[in-house]
Design brief:
By secondary structure, the chain is an all-alpha fold. 88% of the residues lie in helices and 0% in strands.
Length: 132
Protein backbone atom coordinates (compact mmCIF):
# COMPACT_ATOMS: atom_id res chain seq x y z
CA UNK A 1 0.00 0.00 0.00
CA UNK A 2 1.33 3.36 -1.01
CA UNK A 3 0.66 6.48 1.01
CA UNK A 4 -0.28 9.66 -0.79
CA UNK A 5 1.58 12.92 -0.42
CA UNK A 6 -0.85 14.35 2.16
CA UNK A 7 -0.70 11.21 4.28
CA UNK A 8 3.13 11.21 4.23
CA UNK A 9 3.21 14.90 5.09
CA UNK A 10 0.73 14.45 7.94
CA UNK A 11 2.64 11.47 9.29
CA UNK A 12 5.91 13.41 9.06
CA UNK A 13 4.40 16.36 10.94
CA UNK A 14 3.07 14.08 13.65
CA UNK A 15 6.47 12.40 14.08
CA UNK A 16 8.26 15.78 14.25
CA UNK A 17 5.72 17.09 16.78
CA UNK A 18 6.06 14.01 18.99
CA UNK A 19 9.87 14.19 18.85
CA UNK A 20 9.81 17.90 19.67
CA UNK A 21 7.50 17.40 22.64
CA UNK A 22 9.64 14.48 23.86
CA UNK A 23 12.75 16.66 23.64
CA UNK A 24 11.00 19.46 25.54
CA UNK A 25 9.87 17.04 28.22
CA UNK A 26 13.38 15.55 28.53
CA UNK A 27 15.03 18.95 28.88
CA UNK A 28 12.43 19.95 31.46
CA UNK A 29 13.24 16.84 33.49
CA UNK A 30 16.97 17.59 33.20
CA UNK A 31 16.54 21.21 34.34
CA UNK A 32 14.40 20.14 37.29
CA UNK A 33 16.86 17.40 38.30
CA UNK A 34 19.92 19.65 38.23
CA UNK A 35 18.04 22.42 40.06
CA UNK A 36 17.05 19.92 42.76
CA UNK A 37 20.67 18.75 43.07
CA UNK A 38 21.87 22.32 43.52
CA UNK A 39 19.08 22.99 46.03
CA UNK A 40 20.34 20.09 48.15
CA UNK A 41 23.76 21.73 48.46
CA UNK A 42 22.16 25.09 49.22
CA UNK A 43 20.13 23.49 52.01
CA UNK A 44 23.35 22.06 53.44
CA UNK A 45 24.93 25.52 53.24
CA UNK A 46 21.94 27.03 55.03
CA UNK A 47 22.16 24.46 57.83
CA UNK A 48 25.91 24.89 58.21
CA UNK A 49 25.62 28.68 58.38
CA UNK A 50 22.85 28.41 60.99
CA UNK A 51 25.17 26.19 63.02
CA UNK A 52 28.00 28.65 62.32
CA UNK A 53 30.05 25.84 60.81
CA UNK A 54 31.72 27.90 58.08
CA UNK A 55 34.12 25.18 56.85
CA UNK A 56 31.17 22.81 56.26
CA UNK A 57 29.27 25.62 54.53
CA UNK A 58 32.27 26.23 52.28
CA UNK A 59 32.57 22.51 51.41
CA UNK A 60 28.88 22.26 50.51
CA UNK A 61 29.07 25.47 48.53
CA UNK A 62 32.10 24.26 46.58
CA UNK A 63 30.32 20.98 45.77
CA UNK A 64 27.30 22.95 44.60
CA UNK A 65 29.47 25.24 42.48
CA UNK A 66 31.17 22.22 40.90
CA UNK A 67 27.82 20.70 40.01
CA UNK A 68 26.61 24.02 38.66
CA UNK A 69 29.69 24.48 36.47
CA UNK A 70 29.03 21.06 34.93
CA UNK A 71 25.35 21.82 34.29
CA UNK A 72 25.78 25.45 33.24
CA UNK A 73 26.71 24.85 29.56
CA UNK A 74 23.60 22.73 29.08
CA UNK A 75 21.42 25.30 30.83
CA UNK A 76 22.80 27.99 28.53
CA UNK A 77 21.66 25.97 25.54
CA UNK A 78 18.24 25.22 26.99
CA UNK A 79 17.18 28.34 28.88
CA UNK A 80 17.11 32.07 28.62
CA UNK A 81 20.68 33.26 29.18
CA UNK A 82 19.56 35.88 31.70
CA UNK A 83 18.22 33.14 33.98
CA UNK A 84 21.60 31.42 33.93
CA UNK A 85 23.46 34.70 34.49
CA UNK A 86 21.24 35.50 37.49
CA UNK A 87 22.02 32.13 39.05
CA UNK A 88 25.74 32.64 38.35
CA UNK A 89 25.76 36.06 39.98
CA UNK A 90 23.86 34.87 43.02
CA UNK A 91 26.16 31.86 43.46
CA UNK A 92 29.31 33.95 43.24
CA UNK A 93 27.88 36.55 45.62
CA UNK A 94 26.96 33.74 47.99
CA UNK A 95 30.51 32.39 47.84
CA UNK A 96 31.97 35.84 48.55
CA UNK A 97 29.63 36.47 51.49
CA UNK A 98 30.30 32.99 52.89
CA UNK A 99 34.02 33.58 52.69
CA UNK A 100 33.56 36.81 54.65
CA UNK A 101 31.21 34.95 57.05
CA UNK A 102 28.43 37.50 56.61
CA UNK A 103 25.42 35.54 57.81
CA UNK A 104 22.61 37.91 56.78
CA UNK A 105 23.94 38.33 53.26
CA UNK A 106 24.41 34.56 52.90
CA UNK A 107 20.77 33.99 53.83
CA UNK A 108 19.68 36.72 51.41
CA UNK A 109 21.63 35.12 48.56
CA UNK A 110 20.30 31.67 49.45
CA UNK A 111 16.74 33.00 49.24
CA UNK A 112 17.52 34.69 45.95
CA UNK A 113 19.01 31.47 44.56
CA UNK A 114 15.95 29.50 45.63
CA UNK A 115 13.80 32.00 43.75
CA UNK A 116 15.97 31.91 40.60
CA UNK A 117 16.04 28.11 40.55
CA UNK A 118 12.27 27.84 40.96
CA UNK A 119 11.79 30.47 38.26
CA UNK A 120 14.05 28.58 35.85
CA UNK A 121 12.24 25.30 36.48
CA UNK A 122 8.81 26.89 36.10
CA UNK A 123 9.73 28.74 32.92
CA UNK A 124 11.03 25.51 31.34
CA UNK A 125 8.12 23.20 32.22
CA UNK A 126 6.17 21.75 29.36
CA UNK A 127 2.69 23.23 29.75
CA UNK A 128 0.25 25.17 27.61
CA UNK A 129 1.25 28.59 28.96
CA UNK A 130 4.91 27.96 28.10
CA UNK A 131 4.12 26.54 24.68
CA UNK A 132 1.88 29.39 23.53
Amino acid sequence: MRLGYNARLSLGLIVVTVLTLAFCWQTSVYIEKTADNLAVYLTEVRGAVQAEDWPAADRSLQQGLTGWQQARPFWLGLLNHQDVINIDLALHSLAAFAQEQRTDEVFNQLSLLDYYLKLAVESDKVNLSNLF
